[in-house]
Amino acid sequence: xxxxxxxxxxxxxxxxxxxxxxxxxxxxxxxxxxxxxxxxxxxxxxxxxxxxxxxxxxxxxxxxxxxxxxxxxxxxxxxxxxxxxxxxxxxxxxxxxxxxxxxxxxxxxxxxxxxxxxxxxxxxxxxxxxxxxxxxxxxxxxxxxxxxxxxxxxxxxxxxxxxxxxxxxxxxxxxxxxxxxxxxxxxxxxxxxxxxxxxxxxxxxxxxxxxxxxxxxxxxxxxxxxxxxxxxxxxxxxxxxxxxxxxxxxxxxxxxxxxxxxxxxxxxxxxxxxxxxxxxxxxxxxxxxxxxxxxxxxxxxxxxxxxxxxxxxxxxxxxxxxxxxxxxxxxxxxxxxxxxxxxxxxxxxxxxxxxxxxxxxxxxxxxxxxxxxxxxxxxxxxxxxxxxxxxxxxxxxxxxxxxxxxxxxxxxxxxxxxxxxxxxxxxxxxxxx
Length: 433
Prior knowledge:
By secondary structure, the chain is α+β, with helices and mostly antiparallel strands. It has 14 helices and 20 strands.
């Protein structure tokens, strides 16, 4: 009996220690520590560059704060003084491509030979995502960029064993932690050589374009598990007409993206097109149109001429820039609706107009920000809080397909918004016969 009690006590102490250790790690991981025990050792940077040169791996300075400070003060240089790199808060970040890491495995071995302790992080499906290097000073951070078939660069979120996460987290500020804990996507960029603090580095050719891209790079992939469940539950075999529509709709969306990107007009998937992305990772086969949103501040008078120049016929124009602007174009019998959004307090809304009566409507959404995603091989924006946006537009039953839809009454967020005066209608209602 005494032996059993003693064994129970020992087991209780062991499990207690394990539990306390897990609670400690959980607390540490949920509360980023901003007290840094070390500063950057510039020699660590030199040795990183040396390892890259020895292994023919390009390491790109990828820290937007340091890059912007250097770009704005590139003429400032004092021999022997670390002006820019040593002012980093937390790990100094560089980037390498996944292809180079895969093709040049000697790179990691060379880092170890030069005295670095190498801590590796992989995605749940086994892709290398982040590398932290410890030597003499605060760690260096290598983020791994994956070139996607759609032509953009993907940075995976930082995930890994709790102990490894806790080790690196003590060096990272809360803002930086929030940046690397989410997936991110970047436009492809060229690089050039630059000497910073006496070290020959590789940097993005257009630093300010990179900094701007970095600020809005959060990425949200489509949920394939949800799409599979939806398709198993609701989808039936598509008709030949529906298959043709989906192909034409994709072509129309791709063309609209090309035009708007050239005009530097940001847009996002909206309405039924966003619902198709979020619910089934695809175009809704019976939707019969493509829907995108644009903030009214990004409207340009060049938009309509550029679309018409590319063969898209304008079918209607409602409202004016100051109120309820909406444009529709058509190509191959598929309609593209561009809804312009206005900010009003903590909400955003787009307008609608009934051509016959002049009645105005508004569709109200909680204020939202933009994230990137990949939709049918296209890098496009979506509202970051996608489900909140969809619920505003389609209600709590958004997962159930509905084929009968009245744009004036079905959406739960639609509101009557007065009507255009008879004297205004010639200017604010255009419908191509």
